[in-house]
Amino acid sequence: QMQLVESGGGLVQVGGSLRLSCAASGRAFSTYAMGWFRQAPGKEREFVGACSWSGGNEYYADSVKGRFTLSRDNTKDMAYLQMNSLTVEDTAVYYCAAGLVYQALAQQVDYWGQGTQVTVSS
Fold first, then answer.
1. Residue 75 contacts by C-beta under 8 Å, 6 or more apart in sequence?
2. How far apart are CA 86 and CA 18, in angstroms?
3. pLDDT at 37 over 90
4. How distant is the alpha carbon of residue 117 from its chain centre?
């Protein structure tokens, strides 16, 4: 089992920035690809982005490309999501996710966090 705990959510104004953190425990963190998903009210959960076990490769949903950046620190078992130029459409609960297959993380998640709320106000 792997436990994932997100933090860093909150209220931010349009155009602002926020950094989410994900603390992992219980499994060999460095062997898992890490990703982020989000779910807005009344909508299905959607993929945001993923990074490989080393952090050397990343891919993102088109809606956040160029604004969001994933990173990880394998020495601390931490993953991060830096969000810049936020819009009201980014308002959602953000979930940290871990999976063994980096290329398939958008469809195949082994572990989920409990989520953290991000609200962008205009």
1. none
2. 8
3. yes
4. 12
Question: Cβ of 26: how many Cβ atoms within 10 Å?
Answer: 11
Q: Give the mean pLDDT of 83-110.
A: 95
> Is-contact 110 34, C-beta < 8 A?
no
Task: Name the nearest CA neighbour of 74 among 106, 7, 28.
Answer: 28
Within 10 angstroms of residue 11's Cβ, the number of other Cβ atoms is 12
**Cα 61 to Cα 79: distance, rounded to the nearest angstrom:** 18
Percent of the chain topping pLDDT 70:
100
pLDDT at 43 over 90: yes
Using an 8 Å Cβ cutoff, are 110 and 1 in contact?
A: no
Quick check: 10 and 65 in contact, CB under 8 A?
Answer: no
